[in-house]
Design a protein that fits this description.
By secondary structure, this protein is mostly beta strands. It has no helices and ten strands. The strands form three sheets. A four-stranded antiparallel sheet has the order 1-2-3-4, with no helix packed on it. A hairpin with a 2-residue loop joins β5 and β6. The termini are far apart.
């Protein structure tokens, strides 16, 4: 969850009654703090269903890194909250740093995103 201009953006979740092996798409939900109400953006994400990912906001852009979708991921996606457009920022090579991981920290400062810690599998 991240907050941008008085709106909370909540990504993901899992339906308790979903059929095993069939996952619903990852949905982006928003909550207006000012009006104390949920706003339905009707936005589906291009992300594969995953858990233990991290999310951070820089300005009015949301960034989602990694997670576990049956295997550890190191992909990076951005969501422009004004244009409502998702972009895959991942490297074409899955071997590019940072290593695929879950449970990591993520922070933004000075126009940079920092990914640190977490659990990953050593390939050596």
């Amino acid at each position: 969850m991240v907050a941008i201009c008085g709106v909370l953006y909540v990504l993901g979740g899992q339906e308790a009654d979903s059929i095993e092996g069939v996952n619903p798409p990852m949905l982006l939900h928003t909550y207006s703090i000012a009006s104390s109400s949920w706003i339905d953006l009707n936005v589906r994400t291009p992300l594969t269903v995953r858990w233990y990912f991290t999310i951070v906001a820089v300005g009015k852009t949301i960034y989602v890194f990694g997670g576990d979708s049956g295997s550890l991921q190191n992909d990076l996606h951005s969501y422009e909250t004004e244009s409502k457009v998702w972009t895959d920022l991942s490297s074409p090579s899955p071997d590019s740093p940072p290593r695929p991981r879950i449970g990591n920290g993520i922070a933004a400062s000075g126009g940079m995103i920092y990914v640190f810690g977490g659990y990953f599998v050593d390939r050596n």
